Every structure is written in structure tokens, then in C-alpha cells.
């Protein structure tokens, strides 16, 4: 269940960002509209860094940016400790070009409750002993679902500035770009609640499938048709790529 809730939550978040970008594109602020026009989801590409390679759960950037500037990671409880290190990999690995890493941490284990938290990391520069230092700083964090499953701080707002979808100095006038993406904690809460409800409904429906106890006859492959392990791994990898692409296309859909 955890993996599927994870995927649905990613899709909901990406759809929310895409929807707001669409609204900005239609706005009367021409500077913001023109800038938003060139922002798109980057199909969760493989990101290489000194610490290895990673596939983010979601990412956005201006079309002229050389890296993914806004990155989303959704973790469950067993991966919670990985989020700050992933933020390091994305921000430090891009030399500060990645502007925002959004981490959503979900608790799935019933005995541990239903707490959910969101955290933002951004590049921070400072000087120490005469040496310029870059770090991935935690700039915001908050719980939006309590252990008992209730909403927390529903009116609190998560903000991603439009200019965070690109970076200076590749865009010298980046600070002149107005506008922002705003997501209420209540919206984050609804994303997770809807994802869990969808999984529960689907699993409940599976339990009522007809003919599930009938005998099943599968085709038998000849020796030449047998899949090798490497074939299966290759097909699974291709299938995952297609699913990611379809997910990103779905997140670009704007309802009328």
C-alpha cells in the first residue's frame, strides 16, 4: 500500500503545481506569464551527483535551465532519514542550481499513527574561516497531519517562488520575476487522504472480483521463447520509464 499511496501523492502534488502554472500563464502579469510559459515537468530524469545517481519523484524547471530546479521527494517512514541527504545530493550536486527540494514524509505503519510532514530545503551560502560554503539548508518544515490522522495548521502555506524554477546567473534578472506557487497545508492533507482512500477503494474492489477462484490456464513458452533474467530486467526498466512518462503527462493535464 505504501508504494501506491506514494505514487498517488506524487501525482496530486505535480498536478497542483501544473494547475497553478497554467493559471499564471493566463494572468495579466506579462512578466510572470511569459516566464511560467517555459516551465515544465522534467519527467523525473536520472540525476548524477558525487553521491551517486537518483531518480527524483518529481521535478520542474524552466526550459533553459540545465538542471532540475524544483524537486519533489515523497518518502515513507523507513526512508525518512534519507530526505536530508537527498537534498544535499540535489542541491550540492548541482552547485546550488537546484533551488528547492520539497520533501513529503508519510507515516504508513498503523502502530506509529498517521503523521505527515513537509520540509523545504534550499541552497544557502555563508563564509566560514574565510572559506565560502554552500549547504542545503532546511528553510521550512511543518506537520500537516497529526498522529491521529487529523489536519494540522490547515491555513499554513507552502510557497515556491516562480523564480525558483530557474537560477542566477544563467538568468541575470531572475530576482525581477514575480509570482509564486502556493499550496495550503489543508491541500497537502487532502492529497494524502485522497491517495489513501483511492488505494483502499481499489484494494476493496479487488476482494470482490468474480471468478477469482476459477482455474487459470496460461500459455506455455517454448525454450526459445523463455525470458532470461536480463530480458525481464530490461522490460521492467522500460515499463517503469513509460509509467513515469505517462504520470508526467497526466500531471500536465488541465481540466476545463
Task: Give a description of the structure.
The chain is an alpha+beta fold. It has one domain. 34% of the residues lie in helices and 26% in strands. The strands form 3 sheets. A 6-stranded mixed β-sheet has the order 1-4-5-6-7-8. The chain has a two-stranded antiparallel sheet with strand order 2-3. Strands 9-10 form a two-stranded antiparallel sheet. The radius of gyration is 21 Å and the shape is globular. Residues 199-256 are annotated as: Disordered. Residues 233-256 have a biased composition (Basic and acidic residues).
Summarize the structure.
The chain is α+β, with helices and mostly antiparallel strands and 256 residues long. The protein has one domain. The chain is built from five helices and ten strands.
Strand arrangement in the largest pleated sheet: 1-4-5-6-7-8
> How would you spell out the order of helices and strands?
HHEEEEEHEEEEEHH
Q: Write down the Rg.
A: 21 Å
Number of strands: 10
Keywords:
six-stranded mixed beta sheet, single chain, two-stranded antiparallel ribbon, 34% helix, alpha+beta, 256 residues, 5 helices
List the SSEs and their pairings.
Elements lengths: L1 H24 L4 H8 L1 E3 L5 E3 L2 E3 L3 E5 L7 E7 L6 H11 L6 E7 L9 E13 L2 E15 L11 E5 L18 E5 H22 L22 H23 L5
Parallel strand pairs: 5-6
Antiparallel strand pairs: 1-4, 2-3, 4-5, 6-7, 7-8, 9-10
Helix pairs in contact: 1-2, 1-4, 1-5
Amino acid at each position: 500500500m505504501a508504494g501506491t499511496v506514494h505514487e498517488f501523492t506524487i501525482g496530486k502534488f505535480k498536478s497542483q503545481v501544473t494547475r497553478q502554472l497554467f493559471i499564471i500563464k493566463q494572468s495579466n502579469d506579462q512578466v510572470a506569464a511569459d516566464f511560467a510559459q517555459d516551465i515544465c515537468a522534467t519527467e523525473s530524469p536520472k540525476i548524477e551527483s558525487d553521491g551517486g545517481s537518483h531518480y527524483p519523484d518529481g521535478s520542474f524547471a524552466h526550459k533553459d535551465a540545465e538542471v532540475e530546479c524544483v524537486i519533489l521527494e515523497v518518502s515513507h517512514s523507513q526512508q525518512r532519514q534519507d530526505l536530508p541527504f537527498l537534498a544535499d545530493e540535489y542541491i550540492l550536486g548541482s552547485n546550488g542550481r537546484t533551488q528547492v527540494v520539497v520533501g513529503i514524509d508519510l507515516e504508513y505503519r498503523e502502530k506509529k499513527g498517521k503523521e505527515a510532514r513537509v520540509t523545504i530545503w534550499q541552497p544557502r551560502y555563508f563564509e566560514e574561516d574565510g572559506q565560502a560554503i554552500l549547504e542545503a539548508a532546511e528553510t521550512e518544515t511543518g506537520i500537516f497531519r497529526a498522529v491521529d490522522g487529523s489536519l494540522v495548521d490547515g491555513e499554513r502555506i507552502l510557497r515556491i517562488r516562480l523564480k525558483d524554477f530557474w537560477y542566477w546567473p544563467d538568468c541575470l534578472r531572475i530576482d525581477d520575476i514575480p509570482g509564486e506557487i502556493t499550496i495550503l497545508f489543508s491541500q497537502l492533507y487532502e492529497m494524502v487522504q485522497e491517495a489513501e482512500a483511492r488505494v483502499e477503494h481499489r484494494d476493496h474492489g479487488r476482494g470482490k472480483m468474480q471468478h477469482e477462484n476459477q482455474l487459470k490456464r496460461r500459455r506455455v513458452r517454448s525454450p526459445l521463447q523463455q525470458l532470461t533474467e536480463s530480458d525481464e530486467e530490461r522490460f521492467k526498466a522500460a515499463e517503469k520509464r513509460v509509467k513515469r512518462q505517462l504520470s508526467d503527462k497526466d500531471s500536465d493535464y488541465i481540466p476545463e
